[in-house]
Design goal:
Helix content is 29%, strand content 24%. With 510 residues, it is an alpha+beta fold. The longest helix is centred in the first third of the chain and has 31 residues, at 4-34.
Length: 510
């Protein structure tokens, strides 16, 4: 028989149990609000982040006629405000985006994309397959310089609200990767806005304010469909130079900075409140050879001799933005990459021997062009080429003037920076700025682009890169790395490919 004391103890135990349970629930709820949560749905956070960048866009239009502005707008908005059919992770591997999955037919001509359900644009409009079709057609009609990368489109159709079918007249194995960039952004067909000043997307942020040439304020999209602990706001502030940007970081005006020059981070390396991180990039630095008939570098023997004269290890060691040496047109993050640095090992004696084949005075003076940003690198290359027996004249110019010299075919060698994919495509036709013409190489590229699956594409790109490497079509120097400088209290920011895109939905701070 229970006594009154037993009943009291029982009631007290129930009270304590309920209290503990309520406390646990409150603690979990508070944790979900203030910390990153990997479950479904976007989790609110009161965090506000300020980010420093260079190269401010003068428009929010991803297809602005000014390519620099379009590129800067894409870097800020894609993955934050706008989303793409397919996306890429920090290893440059393709991942599901607004398309939860996709398949390709055996002949490589038909791509079928499954569009996610339950996704809305920030204005509340439902995103479905019709928006995808509209966006692709708008991209084609825009006449953008990169629209040819979509390949030979035969049709783009939406058989239902959750399916998009793209039909090609010839294979394009790079199509999913192309759709991870601006050509794959899905816009709201029903939106009526000025895309130069406004943005309506399906991403984790909206554009709260755009101050042309100064800043972009991103505000959390509370109805975002994806999984992310999204900051309440992110302000992208643009600076004229790296020095003032890093000063702002030290003064707590900003908490994250992406300098354009890796060496700029040295100025804050001793600050205990700051962390410096690096990440891979698909960009590379190249000593491009003019293969036109009037240039001495059109001679295969000259190109190969120049390759042997380049001490790539020393160059990589001396350049703060260098990740690793390259021997071909692909970086380690790109499909088909193979280490080709062993094709032409550093051997100035071999260079001298190869140049002795030519009659005295035949080579003349090699005209090397470089921008001011790469003057130090150019000086190093001049010394290395001269040690191998080349006579070199260096001309250092502004960026625009370098582009003019290339367009006018007024160079023998030029130091350039190339973005991912551009380097390999640049040798696929004799109409490129390098005037490179080689039947074996261009046939290898055509075979790669005719692949009907990704495995064959990568194998064929590897073969194409080797043909270019063996022919010394260019003097590839190194793959670049990105530098990110942040307050030690900040985490969750990307480090790879931040020179091209900057997804910020997972950034947090203590």
């Amino acid at each position: 028989m229970h006594t009154q004391r037993d009943n009291a103890l029982t009631r007290w135990g129930i009270f304590v149990g309920v209290a503990v349970g309520l406390f646990a629930l409150l603690w979990i709820g508070w944790s979900l609000v203030t910390h990153h949560y990997a479950g479904g749905g976007s989790i609110r956070s009161d965090t506000s982040i300020s980010v420093g960048l260079r190269d401010a866009p003068t428009s929010l239009d991803l297809f602005d006629e000014d390519s620099d502005t379009a590129e800067a707008a894409g870097r800020a908005l894609i993955g934050n405000v706008y989303e793409t059919l397919v996306t890429r992770d920090q290893n440059n591997e393709l991942q599901a985006g607004l398309a939860s999955d996709w398949t390709v037919s055996d002949d490589g001509l038909t791509y079928t994309f499954d569009i996610r359900s339950g996704v809305e644009f920030s204005n509340g409009h439902t995103l479905d397959a019709s928006d995808v079709v509209y966006s692709l057609r708008q991209a084609v009609d825009s006449g953008a310089s990169d629209v040819d990368q979509l390949g030979s489109l035969a049709s783009v159709e939406a058989p239902d609200s959750s399916t998009v079918v793209i039909t090609l007249s010839s294979p394009n194995p790079t199509l999913p990767r192309v759709l991870s960039g601006r050509l794959g952004v899905v816009f709201d067909e029903q939106a009526s806005i000025d895309y130069a000043d406004e943005a309506v997307g399906s991403g984790p942020f909206t554009v709260g304010r755009f101050r042309e040439g100064e800043s972009i304020t991103l505000e959390r999209n509370d109805d975002y469909w994806g999984d992310a602990s999204i900051p309440a706001s992110v302000t992208l502030t643009y600076y004229d130079d790296d020095a003032s940007m890093l000063t702002a970081l030290q003064n707590d005006t900003i908490e994250l900075a992406i300098p354009s020059e890796a060496s700029a981070a040295d100025s804050v390396s001793s600050d205990p409140t700051i962390t410096i991180a690096t990440g891979a990039s698909t960009s590379s630095v190249v000593l491009a050879f003019n293969n036109g008939p009037d240039a001495i570098t059109s001679d295969e023997q000259v190109r190969k001799a120049a390759r042997h004269a380049l001490d790539l290890d020393a160059i990589v060691e001396s350049q703060p933005d260098a990740a690793q040496a390259l021997g071909g047109p692909l970086t380690p993050l790109e499909p088909g990459y193979e280490d080709l640095t062993g094709l032409y090992p550093y051997d100035p004696t071999q260079t001298q021997s190869m140049l002795s084949y030519f009659a005295y005075g035949y080579l003349g003076t090699v005209h090397l062009v470089a921008s001011h940003d790469y003057q130090e690198l150019a000086d190093t290359i001049v010394q290395q080429l001269q040690a191998g027996g080349f006579d070199v004249r260096l001309e250092v110019l502004a960026d625009g003037e370098v582009s003019d010299r290339i367009a006018a075919d007024d160079y023998d060698m030029v130091i350039i920076e190339t973005a991912g994919g551009d380097n390999a495509r640049g040798f696929s036709s004799s109409q490129s700025p390098y005037f490179y013409e080689d039947d074996d190489a261009q046939q290898a590229y055509a075979q790669a682009m005719a692949a009907t699956n990704d495995a064959d594409f990568q194998e064929r790109m590897r073969a194409y890169a080797r043909v270019l490497g063996e022919d010394a079509a260019s003097g590839w120097l190194y793959a670049r790395q990105c530098t990110v400088v942040a307050k030690s209290t900040v985490s969750g920011y990307p480090t790879a490919m931040v020179d091209q895109r900057l997804p910020l939905a997972s950034v947090t701070k203590q």
